[in-house]
Amino acid sequence: VLSDEVYEHLIFDGQRHYSALSFPELRERSVVVGSFGKTFHVTGWKTGYCVATPALMQLFRQIYQFANFCGVTPVQLALANYMQQHPEHIQNLAGFYQAKRDRFIEGLTGSRFQWLPSQGTYFQNVDYSHIRPDLNDVEFCRFLAEQHGIVGIPVSVFYQQVPEALRMIRFCFAKTDQTLAQAAEILQSV
Question: Maximum distance among all alpha carbons in the chain?
Answer without folding.
Answer: 56
